[in-house]
Amino acid sequence: MDQMDKSILLLLEQNARMTVSEISNRINLSVSAVSERLKKLENTGIIEQYTTIINSKYLNKNLTAFMSVALDGPHYVEKLKEFVETDEEVLEGYYVAGEFDYMLKIITENTESLKDILDRIKGIQGVGKTKTIVALATIKKKHSIVPK
């Protein structure tokens, strides 16, 4: 990946709907060269996908929380994974090191709907303990890394 590829990625990170023609004009490279580079970036997996980022506030999802989950043993992982993969309000899930086993990012309506999610998670066999942190404000929100 050279500096031209990084320039393309920076533009797409700002606006994934930018056309090949617009990118071409911005970085002073032919449309066909930009198109070829994009295909290469997609085929190598550097670009995973193009997506739409929906503002959760417009869907009445006003609460962001981070929930740490500790399991009683590794044989309970599948039940938690199944919940995480199917619940629409759990946006991200990570296997982590430390006191807890998993960290979940949850976006939901309010504290009542968060309580419902917490109750469902605590009801999963093998969940030993949880710790929930509610975000009061977002100070930075990026959806991708910046190529350097």
How is the CATH topology of the largest domain named?
Answer: Alpha-Beta Plaits
Helix percent band: 25-40%
Uncertain spans, ≥5 residues at pLDDT below 50?
A: none
Q: How many β strands by DSSP?
A: 4
How large is the share of residues in beta strands?
15-25%
CATH architecture of the largest domain: 2-Layer Sandwich
What is the H level of CATH, i.e. the homologous superfamily of the largest domain? Answer: Lrp/AsnC effector binding domain/regulation of amino acid metabolism (RAM) domain
Structural class: alpha+beta
Globally, the shape reads elongated
Number of domains as seen in the coordinates: 2
The mean pLDDT is 95
Largest sheet: 4 strands, antiparallel
Tally of helical runs: 5
Q: What does the secondary structure layout of this molecule look like, with pairings?
A:
Layout: H1 3-14, H2 20-27, H3 31-43, E1 63-71, H4 77-86, E2 90-95, E3 102-108, H5 111-122, E4 127-134
Antiparallel strand pairs: 1-3, 1-4, 2-3
Helix pairs in contact: 2-3
Summarize the structure.
The chain is built from five helices and four strands; from the N terminus they run αααβαββαβ. The protein has helices at residues 3-14, 20-27, 31-43, 77-86, 111-122; strands spanning 63-71, 90-95, 102-108, 127-134.
